[in-house]
Design a protein that fits this description.
The protein is an alpha/beta fold. Helix content is 37%, strand content 21%. The protein contains 10 helices and 7 strands. A 7-stranded mixed sheet has the order 3-2-1-4-5-7-6, sandwiched between helices. Strand 1, helix 4 and strand 2 form a beta-alpha-beta unit. Helix 2 runs parallel beside helix 5, helix 6 crosses helix 8 and helix 7 crosses helix 10. The chain is globular. The chain starts with a helix and ends with a strand.
């Protein structure tokens, strides 16, 4: 991690201000259910990611919901950096796309914004509603947001948009909901993530267990194509470390990551032993196993 990222990853957001009064946002005409979104499969160059079913992603994250906040330490660091990247002075309506358990929706709200969270996983939303009953949370897809057009001053998202199967649809929806001259701060995991695990599985002669993620350039093209100005991109490697291979695998599965869109073979004890040996041979650092999350922090602006 470069010096900027190392400093930034440790920066904590100062949360202040009274909780904004609940107002609610107008909902546009009924949209397609998140669980029934099309499973689009085509080339990333056209703005479409690998064919991952949103229903499968929603189910995986719903199962992860009860233990997500305890396991998602690196995700929390990345999200905090996204919040830190926002301007100090914020007013108006905020949208948290992929809000999960609502922790960061509350952070936006505490900074004086009227924040609404959207997620495709009902399990996450149930927890969010319990934890923050004063906030509004809606079931919906980043590709068909249940939010009125031209109604949002700040769109925020962290570690959620990489699971969308159509980059262009995400970019168009962000553009649609933003007011003119409003901004978006998006932290998106991109190609190059989990490289250590991919290499270890290859050495152990085990099948790949994660769909390739879109590149930063693919997201750039999608945002610009939707009419959004890309004002800034910060690329960072966030490295998580684990004491053993089982801890590492649980960290990925426990936060709902690693969805490939197809049934995965359950690793046998022999497979796990081979994977552990391969991982230690390639990547072991002082007995710890690293796992890298490659993340791009995008600042977008809607100028028209």
């Amino acid at each position: 991690m470069n010096e900027f990222c190392a400093q930034a990853a440790n920066a904590l957001v100062q949360e202040a201000g009274a909780v904004a009064q609940e107002k609610g946002l107008d909902r546009p005409p009924p949209l397609q259910s998140a669980s029934k979104s099309p499973n689009i499969s085509a080339g990333i160059s056209s703005g479409i990611s690998a064919g991952i079913s949103e229903k499968a992603v929603a189910e995986r994250f719903s199962k992860a919901a009860p233990r997500y906040d305890k396991l998602a330490a690196i995700q929390f660091t990345i999200a905090q950096q996204g919040l830190h990247n926002l301007p100090a002075q914020l007013v108006g309506n905020a949208l948290d796309i992929g809000c999960g358990t609502g922790v960061h929706t509350q952070s936006l709200n505490a900074r004086g914004l009227h924040a609404v969270g959207v997620d495709i996983a009902q399990g996450m939303l149930s927890l969010a509603g319990t934890n923050y009953p004063h906030l509004t949370f809606k079931l919906g897809s980043a590709q068909a947001l249940p939010i009125a057009s031209n109604s949002i001053d700040v769109v925020y998202s962290s570690m959620a948009l990489q699971w969308a199967n159509c980059l262009n649809s995400v970019a168009e929806e962000v553009h649609r909901v933003l007011k003119r001259d409003a901004i978006a701060e998006l932290a998106i995991m991109v190609s190059g993530s989990f490289e250590e695990l991919t290499n270890a599985r290859k050495l152990a002669q085990l099948p790949t267990a994660m769909t390739s993620l879109p590149t930063a350039d693919a997201w750039n093209r999608a945002f610009r194509g939707a009419g959004l100005a890309v004002k800034r991109v910060i690329s960072c490697n966030y490295v998580d470390t684990h004491s053993d291979i089982m801890s590492l695998l649980r960290s990925v599965k426990g936060v709902g990551a690693g969805e490939t869109g197809k049934q995965q073979k359950v690793l046998s004890r022999q497979d796990i032993k081979k994977l552990s040996m391969a991982y230690h041979n390639i990547h072991s650092e002082a007995g710890r196993l690293p796992l890298t999350y490659r993340v791009c922090h995008f600042r977008l602006e809607k100028n028209a």
